[in-house]
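Weekly modeling sync, notes
Attendees: S.R. (lead), two postdocs, one rotation student

Agenda item 3: backlog of single-chain predictions. S.R. asked that every request posted to the team notebook include the full sequence so nobody has to chase files. The rotation student volunteered to paste the first one in as an example of the format we agreed on. Action items at the bottom.

Example entry:
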Amino acid sequence: LGCDSGPCETMMANLQEFVDNKDNIGKEYPVKGAKYTVSAADNFAYTDPIDGSKASKQGIRIMFSDGSRLVFRLSGE
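Predicted structure, as returned to the notebook:
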């Protein structure tokens, strides 16, 4: 409650730069003996299955070739 949103917005802007740089696709990251290869990255959209309305820029997804992913979202009140 009541935390400063500035650092979070900066993090999301940095992640958007990662998504926008297509050179990151195929990049490998070693973690504890495993290797994770970026297969896709986006700022995902959501389509409501009931009324068909669309909401864009819902959060950053970074997908890896093994099926794992990272998802970053800001939430509000």
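Discussion: group reviewed the output briefly. Residues 62 and 70 are 5 Å apart (CA to CA).
Action items: rotation student to repeat for the remaining queue; S.R. to check formatting next week.
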